[in-house]
Amino acid sequence: MRIGIIGAGMAGLSCAQALRDQGHHPVLFDKGRGPGGRMSTRRIDTPLDEAAFDHGAQYLTARDPAFVAQVDRWAQAGHVARWSPAGPDAWVGTPAMNAPVRAMAGDLDVRWSTVIDSVSHDGEWRIGDERFDAAIVAVPAEQVAPLIAAHDGALADAARSAVSDPCWTVMAAFDGPVPLEYDRVTDLGAI
Q1: Residue 86, CA distances (Å) to 32, 68, 83, 163, 166 in order
Q2: d(Cα 75, Cα 86) in Å, to the nearest integer?
Q3: Which bin fits 12, alpha (ψ -120 to 50), beta or left (φ > 0)?
Q4: Which range of residues forms the domain containing residue 114?
Q5: What is the pLDDT of residues 55-70, one digit of tens each?
Q6: φ/ψ of residue 132, rounded to 5
Q7: 51 part of a folded domain
Q8: pTM score, two decimals?
């Protein structure tokens, strides 16, 4: 089967890998310029050099046995490393947070920088200008509602009612190392 997947973050890429391993042909669409989703890395040029900012998830943890095995494979390949300041089960991408999803996307058919604003069905699923046997939406709930409203109103209403808590990130570059005695700050109160 040819299956269209909207969203190429970790969920969409995991889904695509599983489908590919079962003999299907997944095609992913993502509005981002490259792999990341909630594990994004942004690179910018500064007067001194290039700076990289991991501005999505701070780290990931693995508890499910299948995901623990996947994280172990990433560690062996150099895509993740333990980050002890966040605890014994915390992992970060190396050299940047998007390293695991970049590895996942490597041999998949992903259409980057592609915004999908509707999905139609007329015997086949239509995503953009392409037709598929099945369609999967792997994006945050707030982005799901307009894509599925014409197909399942109740599910679209449930998606509309979902409210994600934002995670604000400040990206700042300095002209040299900042002498701090810690690698992580946790603020449990309002900023």
Answers
A1: 28, 17, 6, 26, 20
A2: 17
A3: alpha
A4: 2-37+105-161
A5: 888 899 999 999 999 9
A6: -140, 155
A7: no
A8: 0.88
pLDDT tens, residue by residue, 71-94? 999 999 999 999 988 888 999 999
Is the residue at 143 inside a domain? yes
Is residue 30 one of the residues assigned to a domain?
yes
Angle in degrees, CA 7, 53, 93, rounded to 5: 65
The residue behind tokens 């592609």 is 114
Rounded to whole angstroms, the Cα distance separating 131 from 2 reads 8
> 120-165: per-residue pLDDT in tens?
999 999 999 999 999 999 999 889 999 999 889 999 999 999 988 8
CA angle 63, 66, 68 (to 5 degrees): 45
Helices (H), 33-163: 65-77, 99-105, 141-148, 153-161
State how many domains the chain has: 1
Q: Domain of 13: which CATH number?
A: 3.50.50.60
In a domain, 97, yes or no: no
**Average pLDDT, rounded, for the chain:** 91
Q: Is the per-residue pLDDT at 191 higher than 70?
A: no
